[in-house]
Every structure is written in structure tokens, then in C-alpha cells.
Amino acid sequence: MDPLLKISHRPATCVPPEETICGAVKAMVRDRTGAAAVMNADGSLAGIFTERDLMTRVVAMHRDPETTLVGDAMTTEPVTITPDTSLEQALEIMVTNHFRHLPIVDGDEVVGIATVRRVLKHKLDEEKEALESVVSFFTADGIGG
User: Fold this and answer.
1) In the prediction, which pLDDT does 111 show?
2) CA 57, CA 71: separation in Å to the nearest integer?
């Protein structure tokens, strides 16, 4: 399995554009994620709805989450990545564009959502392992040590 998919939120939380904001937020809370892929009836990606969209396009605008539709508050034409995108490439896209979530698309299917938190944690864990290996090497008592 691709490293990006191993650490990403899978399966992606998906909602239709006709879903209310309350319905989308309930799905996100249920799945413990900060974003949902917004899917058209034909299965194509219509957009992404994130915590930031909730704050800036619903709460800050005093819109009613019970009646406002996801399609009216989502980010349209989101940047997407593929499962073979490297962790470094995904992180670069997220940092450069100030994104916290990126849909991972395989063909026409949304297979997951990459998060900056999970990518950074994975990279930190890798660096920690490498550092521990170097420390072990230099602190080992062996011949010639």
C-alpha cells in the first residue's frame, strides 16, 4: 500500500452537495475528521467541506447550519493528489497553499483524505527513528569504541 494511503483518513468521509451543514458536521464528527469530500450523484468530486469552510462561510456569515447546504459553503475545485504522491510532495502542497486537508483521488474515486497533521507526525516519527539509530551507534560500547 502507498505510504500516503497508510497514514491518511480512509475511507474518506463523503457527503452530497445537497446535505445540510449540520448533516455534514455530524458525519465529520462521527468519523473524527476535519473534512468531508463532497460528491456529486454521479460519483465525481464536487468539492471539499472543511472546518475552515464551516468557520468562514457559515459561522462568520451568520448562516443557519440547519438550512445551509454543503454545496453553498464548500470549497469548489479542490486541489487533489493521487495515492502515489510522495509524503514530501503532499506536505509541500499543503504548506504552500495553507491547506490542512487534501483529497486523494485514484481515477475518479476519492480513496482518502490526507491531513497535514498525519503527514507531519509520520515525518517526525521517521526523523526520531533515524536520530535514535545514530545515537545508538555512537553510544554503543563495542570494539574500537
Assistant:
1) 93
2) 11
Distances (CA, A) of 32 to 25, 36, 76, 100, 129: 10, 11, 22, 15, 28
DSSP string, 12-78: PPEE-TTSBHHHHHHHHHHHT-SEEEEE-TTS-EEEEEEHHHIIIIIITTT--TTT-BGGGTSEES-
Closest listed residue to residue 98, CA positions, set 52, 57, 58, 55: 52
Topology of the domain covering 3-139: CBS-domain (3.10.580)
| 90: number of Cβ within 10 Å | 24
| Residues of the chain with confidence (pLDDT) below 70 | 1, 130-131, 134-135, 137-138, 140-145
User: For residues 87 and 119, is the Cβ–Cβ distance under 8 A?
Assistant: yes
